[in-house]
Amino acid sequence: MKTPTTSLQPAEWEPHSAVWSAWPSHAELWLEDLEPARAEVAALFRAVADKDAHGRPRGEALKILACGDEAVASAKQALAGTGAEIVPAVFGDIWLRDTAAIFVRSSGKLAAACFTFNGWGGKYVLAGDGGVAAFVAARAGVSATVNPWVLEGGSIDVDGQGTCLTTRQCLLNPNRNPGLSQGEIENRLRASLGIEKLIWLGDGLVNDHTDGHVDNIARFIAPGVVMCMEPAGAGDPNRDALKAIIADLKVATDVNGRKLEIVTVPSPGRVENADGEAIPASSMNFYIGNTTVVVPLYASATDDAAVAAIAKAFPGRRTVGLPAGHVITGGGSFHCITQQQPLP
Predict the structure, then answer these.
(1) Residue in 164, 152, 166, 97 with CA at minimum distance from that of residue 122
(2) Cα separation of 269 and 238, whole Å?
(3) How many CA atoms does the CB half-sphere of 277 hold within 13 Å?
(4) Helix, strand, coil distribution of the chain in percent, nearest 5
(5) Is 336 considered catalytic here?
(6) Threshold 0.70, pTM exceeds
(7) Can you spell out the DSSP letters for 242-279?
(8) In this predicted model, what pLDDT tens digit does every residue of 112-140 receive, in sequence order?
(9) Annotated catalytic residue within 67, 114, 164, 336
(10) What domains can be seen in the chain, in order of their start residue?
(11) Which of 209, 207, 187 has its CA nearest to residue 198?
């Protein structure tokens, strides 16, 4: 490990050498959703790999962690032909956006920023999750900087030029870094990820155990351009929060002083779990791969419109909508389980 140096987190749409993710491995966590969730993430991985008719990869390499012999065997069988590297590893669950290292460019080289993970404010503390960041950095063969404070990758979204979206609900939550002020958090993000301008939004989605991760509500899709969701009618449980997000973005500027261009897509509206409770289903939880943008679908009336709107925003990539109804039973979706490794 080394002393922090000037680093910058690249934007997700910049070229990747690989994507890191994980295979649902713990039956006691997933219960009856284990095999259906595995099928959904396998479809995601195949879309990201994007092999042509001759089996040649067009997308990016897959680095898939699997915990335990059964999970390793299952992943190898399900992902045969994708070129995926199945990496035996110890972890609590698959949410590598939050537990893995965040890759940065530092002094002209690829490096990794590792942060403390505390189970989203102590709600889901699982054995092994605290070591995932260092493990991924070592496996990727890059130098790592340990930042001894709590940060999850899904709580921030960057434009690759020094601007970042985040929420007060998460980053200022006393269950993360109770001794740090807003200014101190801003200073630490500047030092670790090269973030010079934070755009602070308010609350995230209803019943989101991450306490309002921004990758569920607003994403940069180009420098100066932010995508967010329009409420799906009066019955949308996130109607007020989504309207507030749009209002905040309309008055925001980026690190270069530009007013943001705002692109909206429809919210999935009210999506319920088996107990009839609203779950944090989001059109924003898409993954931007080298050749493919993968959008989670929730059997919502707005699924097709959301995919079409996102496809319009990424004309140089194909856009694929895939079911995520079983993955989200674990608390997140496609963006939550992926962490891109940029080219050096």
Answers:
(1) 152
(2) 8
(3) 9
(4) 30, 25, 40
(5) yes
(6) yes
(7) HHHHHHHHHT-B-TTSPBPEEEEEE-----B-TTS-B-
(8) 999 999 999 999 999 999 999 999 999 99
(9) 336
(10) 7-342 (3.75.10.10)
(11) 187
